[in-house]
Amino acid sequence: MPIAAEPADATLIARVLAGDDRMAFAALVRRHQSAVRSLLRRLTGGQHALADDLAQETFLQAYRKLAQFRADARFSTWLHRIATNAWLQHLRARRIELSLDDVPAVDEGLAADDEAPRADLQLDMNRAFAVLSPAERAAIVQCYHLDMSHEEAAAALGCPVGTLKSHISRGKQKLKARLRAWELAS
Description:
- By secondary structure, this protein is an all-alpha fold.
- The protein has 2 domains: 1-92, Orthogonal Bundle (Rna Polymerase Sigma Factor, Chain: A), CATH 1.10.1740.10; 97-186, Arc Repressor Mutant, subunit A, CATH 1.10.10.
- It has helices spanning 9-19, 22-43, 48-64, 75-93, 118-130, 134-145, 150-157, 161-178, 180-185.
- The longest helix is centred in the first third of the chain and has 22 residues, at 22-43.
- It is elongated and about 55 Å long.
- InterPro entries: RNA_pol_sigma-70-like, RNA_pol_sigma-70_dom, RNA_pol_sigma70_ECF_CS, RNA_pol_sigma70_r2, RNA_pol_sigma70_r4_t2, RNA_pol_sigma_r2, RNA_pol_sigma_r3/r4-like, WH-like_DNA-bd_sf.
- Belongs to the sigma-70 factor family. ECF subfamily.
- Pfam families: Sigma70_r2, Sigma70_r4_2.
């Protein structure tokens, strides 16, 4: 007996909208929850509990607003936009501002060994990532960690492609400046 193919997102969405089919929505959640959680974990700097809470909020918002979904973009792109907005709303609600003063600088006078511990690199990456503005962080996560095209990322973030490219450029400059010690050690 051949295995039945999973219904497409559009089919599941239609079932939810036609009859409030919660099983169809549960299938959408199962299909997309890993990517949404991954996005939010990167945006929150690895705060798993916060990312999971924001993922839950993302899917609640998606369920409430499913009738507003226009199929001019992929459903996953639409979910990523909701997730990013949930993260930004979290930042605004707590008036969290990220700045260079909040994160200790990498000591550029330190000579790194050829085989620097991976944990040190990860710590420095997290510190460098923390100096990015929310828009810069979101743009870099969408394009480099989720491997979205500039057009997809711009759609997910609700901004023009040119603005997205500006956020990426500024973010990369900040990351490069913060990680200069690793570059010198290479």
